[in-house]
Amino acid sequence: MNLHEFYIGKAFDAYEYFGAHITKDGVLFRVYAPCAEKIELIGEFNDWDGSEDEMIQDAQSGVFECVQEDAEPGMMYKYRIYQKDGIVLDRFDPYSFGSQVRPDTASIIVDLDQYHFSDSVWIKKRCKNYDLPVNIYEVHAGSWRKNEADEENGWYHYNELARQLIPYIKEMGYTHVEFLPLTEHPADCSWGYQASGYFCPTSRYGTAGELMEMVDLFHKEGIGVIMDFVPVHFISDTYALNKFDGTALYEYADEDKGYSEWGTCNFNYYRGEVRSFLQSSANFWMEKFHFDGIRMDAISNAIYWQGDSSKGINEGALDFIKCMNSGLQKLHPSVMLIAEDSTNFPKVTAPVEYDGLGFDYKWDMGWMNDTLDYFKIHPYDRKFHYHKLSFSMMYFYNEHYLLPFSHDEVVHGKATILQKMWGEYDLKFQQAKTLYTYMYTHPGKKLNFMGNEIGQFREWDEEKECDWMLLDYPKHQDFHRFIKDLNQIYINEPAFFNGDYNSANFRWIEVEAVEERVYIYERMCGEDHFIIVLNMSDEQYNDFEFGYDHYAVLHEVLSGERKEYGGYFDGSKADILAELTGYKWWKRKFKITIPALAAIIYKVEFLPEPKEIPLPMLDEASLDIDRKRFRTEHEIRAEHEN
To answer: Is-above-0.85 flag for pTM?
Structure first.
């Protein structure tokens, strides 16, 4: 590491310099604490007595170091920091690669070079996936399934969890798994969002080597791995970063800016050392653990002071984000950088060189909130909020959006996705299938939190595993099967992912049927076209007409209201031929039956345009018979002429 670059906030490899590193002479320890009066290294190797292991500062660099000959991998250690105000505190190493299981707080010496990845083929072909399917299964590692028989806290080790998750993810049709933060954190209830160790995998689920093995196992099966990363705030506990050397080293000295709404400390982006710390951490997870994506939490709280736009833009934070993302894009051009940002700040996913923030994707929080709010409304009243559902396409092409139904939507009294649906038990399943059809056919990449796919009614609790016993009940079985089949359509049909961010690949066909509360739109990629019909009313429409500009046949691909998915609709699944007469300004029209509260996906098959031959030569009965055989108008007329 170049020390000057560290000071000015340009370093991305600070973890190679600071922390505990194994050398031929012992373990070399380095820590940055420029305002400390004195620092002693304490640990198992010296019986926690640092009197013989005082760390030496190189001139006025702020860097203290020492070599401990008796230290070995697996041993615990801390830094005993003597502050200038006379207070002495034992501190966790900010650059530690390992730690004790909470509530204990010692750092652990780790050799990161012991595990050897075998995923070179995966890494070589990896890309940003702009024109590929991205279907993310969001997981909390400690509660997807519980290991209560063998482990006191019920946690599986990283590699054990992978062996269970992989077949499930493949079966369900997800392309990526995204883990809630795996950086070390003291409180289970924070889910990792209040971190203490930014270079340290949480010891709850095993060692750094086991985490590496987990990522490697996913890659062998063609599954990408994304990790949640929290570059905005950190825990206020005194054993970690808070006033690390007795002064506000990582946080703002001003308490109005120093603390977040969660009671944590906000990172001070105006200090070069803090920037280097954070962007080195992001690089660390990609470089050492081969993560395929980083989802950065609470970016709105970085863009604006305290996340409040009325308090103004935090220019230091913007500079940091641009510097970090620009550097990561160069170091890891195939890794996805994803922003969780609820603001309308412009150019979040534009490259830094074009005055953007440099993310690849941004969570579409507006789409998520509008959509879930709409589905809570009584079907009759939805006509008064009709364009709440279509509004997302007014701004969609401003950013590279990802559509999330995340953990945040199923906790803290918000109710689960299924509970949010209007109506009683059966109606909730009915609408949830329509909700997910809308989500998976809407442009944008996808994310779904664990438990959503089984129709969970209980809000997520980090201490309990998903309610897998629900799959013993027919309604949940049907819903689970529907999500699986919908996922398969999404990942296998290019019209739903290739050209996601090209406005030519989406169009509204019907977006003014306010009284009927019906929406119809088309997704396309080359010759592949699909038409999606949404009926948000509680009335079934027979012979519903909508226009089209090609002579074509519609083949039903999926409808949640079919009996195989627990629905009630048993109508004909026969293909639908375009009518030969015009409809409004369209050349052709279709007549379809739409069950109440239902969604239908149709694949479009284009037919040769018929020659202009006068219609009177054919009687309507003949045309009706021939329509059912799906012959072209040209063939029908030729036969009658002969």
So the answer is: yes
The terminus-to-terminus CA distance of the chain in angstroms comes to: 85
Residues contacting residue 13 through CB under 8 Å, at least 6 positions apart: 1, 280, 283
Sequence-ordered list of residues with C-beta below 8 angstroms from that of 432, at least 6 positions apart, any chain: 417, 418, 421, 455, 479
DSSP label at 535?
A: E
Residues of 49-84 as b/e, b for ≥16 C-beta within 10 angstroms? Answer: ebeebebeeeeeebbbbbebeebeeebbbbbbbbbe
How deeply is 240 buried, as exposed, middle or buried, from its count of CB atoms within 10 A (0-12, 13-18, 19+)?
Answer: buried
Residues acting as catalytic residues: 297, 340
pLDDT digits (tens, 9 = 90+) for 400-436: 999 999 999 999 899 999 999 999 999 999 999 999 9
Contact 77, 109 (CB under 8 A): yes
Cα–Cα distance measured from residue 598 to residue 325, given in angstroms and rounded to the nearest whole number: 42
Q: Which residues contact 369 (CB under 8 A, 6 or more apart)?
A: none
The model's pLDDT over 554-585, given as tens digits with 9 standing for 90+, comes to 999 999 999 889 988 776 677 999 988 777 77
- The first and second tokens of residue 495, run together, are 């019209």
Count of CB atoms within 10 A of residue 126's CB? 19
Phi, psi of 533 (to 5 degrees): -120, 130
10 Å CB burial of residue 7 (0-12, 13-18, 19+) is middle
DSSP state of 100: P
DSSP string, 132-199: S--EEEEE-TTTSS--TTT-TT-PPPHHHHHHHHHHHHHHHT-SEEEESP-EE-S-GGGTTSS-SEEE
Backbone phi and psi for residue 427, each to the nearest 5 degrees, phi listed first: -65, -30
Say whether 629 sits in a helix, a strand or coil.
coil
Asked whether the beta carbons of 361 and 402 are under 8 A apart, the reply is yes
